[in-house]
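Exercise 7.
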Amino acid sequence: MAAPASFDFDAIIPRHQTGSFKWDSNPGADVLPMWVADMDFSAAPAVLDALARRVEHGVFGYTLIRDGYYLALSGWFERRYDFVIQRDQVLTTTGVVPAISAILRALTTPGDGVIVQTPVYHCFFSSIRNQGCNVVENPLRLINGRYQMDFTHLEQQAADSRNKLLLLCHPHNPSGRVWTAEELRRLGDICARHQVVVVSDEIHCDLLFPGESHQPFATLGPEYQANAITLNSPSKSFNLAGLQIANIIVADQGIKALIQQALHIHDVAQVNPFGVEGLIAAYNEGGPWLDALLDYLYGNYQLIQSFLHSRLPQLTLYPQQSTYLAWINTTATGLSSDELAHRLLTDGKLRISSGNGFLPGSETAAAFIRLNFACPRVLLQDGLERLYRVING
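Solution. The predicted structure, written as tokens, is:
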């Protein structure tokens, strides 16, 4: 489906020499970056207008979170996901990763175990280890080409009193798997039985493919919400990572107080005015833009499917349900993901993410690469041609 003319996702916006981590950290200007998870699209017009009004005001002092912020946040999640968020459940911070770090500091002590379902977002590992905790892997099982949770193994890990938290990636990064209500309930029941708190990172929840739906973990029922901490942000959905704004949603007021204390001790509770205005505009007025974006992203995903099928049949695209991050099995190339990533960068001037980063040392993850397709279609076509030349060159 074509995007409305007012939302031009085909426009090429030069990002070199703008301080872009994605574009300006590469070894050369001829490298096409399709790695780190930000998009090469302009933000929604409603967000740009709101930020322009804030700039026009001209004063950028310390920021108070006003009522409109909470109304925008709660309105968005209630309209889209039937997730009713109360104001006294919300903590703000500068990002989901700082939120995870604060939660770990608040609810664990060095030596505790934190369960993660691998392969998974690489910052989970660093956040856990930086707190002095142990990464406890509950590997996902790849069955008939689809990731499944291993509940038998999870029960064993949750029963270990040393394991205090489970970090849930929902939807899942890197695969784009959307967890079902049944899967979430089984996970939640296991964790509740053993007093393991579920920290649900739902930063990708808006980036859904046609026919898919997101079930916030906390909406499964009061008993699940009582044992849950939800993390969300408009940064992925609306390409606002640089505005540094995220939310921690927690119903248990005792747990909330501990996390709030950790945020203040480490000075990551104070957010900036642009993040506040960006979130309000995105959640109040950005729905049409996001819907058009999702159509465009799905078209990009279909392009990858078609390209690999016709020209690179030795590669297998994971059948993802969400996100803009393609998870591609490269086993047939005979190269590890690190080796292929290196060749793509040096020979093809294409920068992608090695699967090894999502589970260091894993043979399974080492068979995959992750490719960011949130870009104008002409750039995606260029990236796929570079991939083809390196593999078939």
